[in-house]
Amino acid sequence: MSSSISERITKIRSTLPQGVKLIAVTKKVPSDKIRLAYEAGIRDFAESRIQEAMGKRTELEDLSDITWHFIGHIQSNKAKKIISNFPWIHSLDSLKLAQRLDRLASELEINPLVCLQVKILPDPNKSGWNIDELKGDLPALALCKRLQFQGLMTIPPLGLNDVEILDVFKRTKELATEIRDRNWQNFKMSDLSMGMSGDYKIALQADTTMVRLGTILFGERPL
Ligand SMILES: *Cc1c(COP(=O)(O)O)cnc(C)c1O
């Protein structure tokens, strides 16, 4: 890519509707590049591995108005460190984890903002609830009073065409709306965390509110 990080950010920003949050995914991106994205106006950043994230967090401590989002699978022994350091969790993928986070959040006296990760189509490579499982777990999730359920997160399985991807995103939105309409106290359900570099334009067609972009901003990640 010949354009700079700042040029790419400006260009993509100009295509996003008002109210859609651009979250820069900085896994495997060194902190000097994160700084460039910050200078270009980004304030929401996402990481998927706690160990990698904490080193960079120290280097970026002076950028105190960043909101950090966690988007990776959460192992139970890392849960406390993760919710202590990330106000947003997009990858809440099981009732058991929700209950653990709720207990930890009580201890820490915090109210984490969370998205429930859903699988609209079966996908052995991803964690998360399928639609029926999630509906079944909702009453138990509602007892996790410390968690603020902001919405749903999804990643379509690999190998779908654009029409199929759009369908996954639309069904995710329908599910979020259905849950929101129950008007349960800690279920705000107004956010959709959908869309990565390859499919964010499709996610916009399904009214996503948060796009998580890595490669398209920072270039290919090293393997
Ligand atoms: C890596 C990652 C992204 C960003 O992916 P790109 O294709 O590089 O934009 C978004 N969401 C999650 C959950 C990720 O792990």
Automatic annotation (TrEMBL):
NCBIfam families: YggS family pyridoxal phosphate-dependent enzyme (TIGR00044). Its cofactor is pyridoxal 5'-phosphate. Keywords: Pyridoxal phosphate. The lineage of its organism: Bacteria, Bacillati, Cyanobacteriota, Cyanophyceae, Nostocales. It comes from the Bacteria. Pyridoxal 5'-phosphate (PLP)-binding protein, which is involved in PLP homeostasis. Residues 4-222 form the Alanine racemase N-terminal domain. The modification N6-(pyridoxal phosphate)lysine is found at K27. CDD domains: PLPDE_III_YBL036c_like. PROSITE patterns: UPF0001. Gene3D superfamilies: Alanine racemase. HAMAP family: PLP_homeostasis. GO terms for molecular function: pyridoxal phosphate binding. InterPro entries: Ala_racemase_N (IPR001608), PLP-binding_barrel (IPR029066), PyrdxlP_homeostasis (IPR011078). Belongs to the pyridoxal phosphate-binding protein YggS/PROSC family. This is Pyridoxal phosphate homeostasis protein. Pfam families: Ala_racemase_N.
